Amino acid sequence: MPELPEVETVRRVLEPHLLKKKITGVQIHNAQVIASPSPEQFIAGVTGQGIAAFTRRGKFLRLLFESGDSLTVHLRMTGCLTIEPQTMPSEKHTHVIFTLNDGNELRYEDVRRLGKIWFAKSGEEDVSGVKELGMEPFDSALNAAYLRGKCKNSKKPVKSMLLDQSIVAGIGNIYSDEILFAAGIRPDRACSALTDSDFERLAAAIPERLNFFIEKNAISFEEYALSKGKDYRNTPYLQVYGKAGEPCPVCGKGLHRIVLGGRSSVFCPHCQI
Length: 273
Fold this sequence. Notes:
Layout: H1 4-18, E1 23-28, E2 34-36, H2 39-46, E3 51-57, E4 60-65, E5 70-74, E6 79-85, E7 94-100, E8 104-110, E9 116-120, H3 144-151, H4 158-163, H5 173-183, H6 196-216, H7 221-226, E10 256-260, E11 263-267
Parallel strand pairs: 2-9
Antiparallel strand pairs: 1-7, 3-4, 4-5, 5-9, 6-8, 7-8, 10-11
Helix pairs in contact: 1-6, 3-6, 5-6
């Protein structure tokens, strides 16, 4: 499932091919992915818009238009965005096509149709959920004091805190395991049991690990196009996620798997306390 590093990869790859382009038409093949407004209003609102910026907020991607209007996309589990020539046949699960004025199309594909797209006019309430997101992991204000203030009295596991998008935006199941391993903290430790030193290590590990995986996911536009935006390159660099029973890369002892809030978590009981 795409988390912040994968979503940021999409942004970096597609941004140069979207800036200053104009959307001259919209085709909706499956209205299920259009969250707001109605398909008819969506088409009318997006058609003719000039693209001023392509940004990311947490796991959301946003097209910001010259008019001040915006389009927000959440890829969820299987959604992907690609830019293809208008002459190239679309894939089976292509649900929305945005025709660009340069002969290409921005296409939204989603096998399971779990992703959503929102359009909002300037000044209208944004109902995508972006406004409810917490701090970006790379914000300089994300420090030990911020994390401590958000959860020091909570008995919830620290992993649940990392997955709470209202505290830190963009972290999912994969990178929460990697962050906690780097910080030397068990995923099931209660937030209220964390020490000042724990919060310091956690605040340092969040941006460091996410930046690391963003760089490992780097891919050219040509490579991205060949894989239809589905070739993520982080797997060889994961230290604990999905590796239950394997040796810890630091101490060599077996990694353990537990379930917290219905989510699988892998950690080293020797290196994480």
